[in-house]
Amino acid sequence: MSFLSVFRTASRAVRPASVVRAPFVRSRVQTPVTLAAARTANFGTTRMLRSGHEDETYEEFSARFEKEFDGVQDVFELQRNLNNCFAYDLVPSVEVLTAALKAARRVNDFPTAVRVFEGIKAKVENQEQYKQYLDQLDGLRQELGVALREELYPQEE
C-alpha cells in the first residue's frame, strides 16, 4: 500500500459526523402549495417602518419645524432640517421659513439662506405664489442681507 492510500484511509476515520452530508434529493416538480407558502414567507417577514408623523396637521408640522430651526447649532443640522422640511408634499409656512433664515444667519451660512428661496421657488405651483412668499419675507430678507439667486445671477433666467 502506498503512503497516500494509508493517509486517505486514516483521514476518513477521523472525520466528525457533522461533516458527512446526507445525499441531496431534489424534486423536479414543486407543488403550487409550496410555492405559495414560500412567497408569503418572503413578504410576510418584513416590518413596515413609520416616521411617527402620519396624522400630523399643517399647524403641528409648522410648530415642529419652527422648534427644530430654533435649536439649530451648526450648518449640518440646519441643512438636515431644511432637507427634511422640504421633503414633504407641501410648502413650508412663512413662520418656518423665517425660523430657517434666522438659523442660517445664526450659524453664518449665507449660501444656505439663498437656497431657502430656491427651495421655495421649486416647491410652489406657480410664480404668483413665489411672489407672495417673497413679499411676506422681504423685510426679513433685507434685514438679514440675503440676496436672491435672481439678483445674484440675472443672466441665468
From TrEMBL:
Pathway: Energy metabolism; oxidative phosphorylation. One of its GO terms (molecular function) is metal ion binding. Keywords: Coiled coil, Heme, Iron, Membrane, Metal-binding, Mitochondrion, Mitochondrion inner membrane, Transit peptide. It is found in: Mitochondrion inner membrane. InterPro entries: Cyt_c_oxidase_su5A/6, Cyt_c_oxidase_su5A/6_sf. Its main location: mitochondrion. It is a peripheral membrane protein. Residues 123-150 form a coiled coil. GO terms for biological process: mitochondrial electron transport, cytochrome c to oxygen. It comes from the Eukaryota. GO terms for cellular component: mitochondrial inner membrane; respiratory chain complex IV. It holds the Pfam family COX5A. Component of the cytochrome c oxidase (complex IV, CIV), a multisubunit enzyme composed of a catalytic core of 3 subunits and several supernumerary subunits. Component of the cytochrome c oxidase, the last enzyme in the mitochondrial electron transport chain which drives oxidative phosphorylation. The respiratory chain contains 3 multisubunit complexes succinate dehydrogenase (complex II, CII), ubiquinol-cytochrome c oxidoreductase (cytochrome b-c1 complex, complex III, CIII) and cytochrome c oxidase (complex IV, CIV), that cooperate to transfer electrons derived from NADH and succinate to molecular oxygen, creating an electrochemical gradient over the inner membrane that drives transmembrane transport and the ATP synthase. Belongs to the cytochrome c oxidase subunit 5A family. This is Cytochrome c oxidase subunit 6, mitochondrial. The lineage of its organism: Eukaryota, Fungi, Dikarya, Ascomycota, Pezizomycotina.
